[in-house]
Specification:
The protein has 293 residues and is mostly helical. It has a single domain, classed as Orthogonal Bundle (Farnesyl Diphosphate Synthase). The chain is built from ten helices and two strands; from the N terminus they run ααββαααααααα. The protein has a two-stranded antiparallel ribbon.
């Protein structure tokens, strides 16, 4: 069986915009723009293709943990110079999130190349040298980050080569990777452990929501998916069981987040954990909207 999962930290961890205050939404957009700038400055224009909401959440959590100096300045984006925007300036946190994005991109491309066929595979091959260059730069800035990304790919490949691998085993590499990445945000041993616990459960949810999102396609193409053991159940039964598993992960992630005792960016991060994840889960299980990406 083929595998296409592994490091699926892409597109699910974001807030519900309508439940944010105007100032919160403006701050969130400014961090998004700041991360885009950080990617382009360090890794080149191509790297901006990796930009998505998940890494904005990584940057926001890093800011909340490290409490670095943050500035918000007006600017005009080259993509839309007629519209005034706000840019977040916080090199410590934004560079951390940018390195995370590039490290994870390289692992994802390697995984996709193994699984794809035809023109899609050729396209991935063409992108690989650029991603490899980005990984080298990420190793200089965050060497442990790159190591984590490589470890998750190797572990995931081995696990998903066994069609009988269960949910706990299949989700562990991604969960552990996000746990380790979160732990890198602190230098305090006790806080590192708490951040790892939070990241682990959030990473588990991300892996499993991606698996639920890909279920039908994986079933059709005979690729590994930890939920394939549910294929003989009715759609309602399958959705109910998947929902229960994901709800447990969400609840545990939220409980572990509260133990961190963070103050900065707290309302936006709580929106993501309490509202955003649930909204993404409803979207995926209803099958009424496009996939995250």
């Amino acid at each position: 069986m083929e595998s296409e999962r592994g490091d699926s930290l892409f597109g699910y961890v974001k807030p519900v915009q309508g439940q944010l205050l105007v100032c919160e939404y403006e701050a969130y957009k400014a961090i998004y723009c700041g991360l885009c700038k950080a990617l382009g400055k360090t890794f080149g224009p191509f790297s901006r293709l990796t930009l998505n909401y998940d890494f904005v959440a990584v940057a926001m959590l890093h800011m909340a943990v490290r409490k670095p100096k943050v500035e918000y300045l007006p600017f005009r984006c080259a993509a839309n110079p007629l519209k005034k925007r706000t840019l977040c300036i916080c090199p410590e946190s934004l560079d951390f999130a940018a390195a995370c994005a590039m490290a994870m991109l390289y692992s994802k491309l390697k995984d996709d190349i193994r699984d794809e066929r035809g023109f899609k595979r050729i396209g991935k091959w063409l992108l690989l040298p650029l991603a490899r260059s980005g990984l080298k730069k990420a190793k200089k800035n965050e060497p442990r980050m790159a190591q984590i990304a490589e470890e998750i790919m190797n572990r995931q490949n081995k696990i998903e080569s066994d069609p009988s691998a269960g949910i706990d085993l299949a989700a562990d590499p991604s969960a552990s990777a996000l746990g380790q990445i979160c732990a890198l945000m602190s230098e305090e041993e006790g806080q590192q452990a708490a951040l790892y616990d939070f990241g682990y459960m959030l990473g588990r949810w991300v892996y499993l929501i991606d698996a639920a999102d890909d279920y039908e396609e994986d079933l059709r193409r005979k690729r590994f998916n930890p939920f394939l053991y549910l294929k003989d159940k009715t759609n309602a039964e399958r959705q109910s069981e998947i929902s229960s598993i994901l709800n447990f992960c969400m609840t545990e992630a939220a409980a572990r987040f509260e133990k961190l005792g963070l103050k900065k960016n707290i309302s936006i991060l709580q929106n993501i954990l309490y509202l955003g994840l649930a909204a993404q889960q409803r979207r995926v299980l209803s099958g009424k909207a496009p996939k995250a990406g």
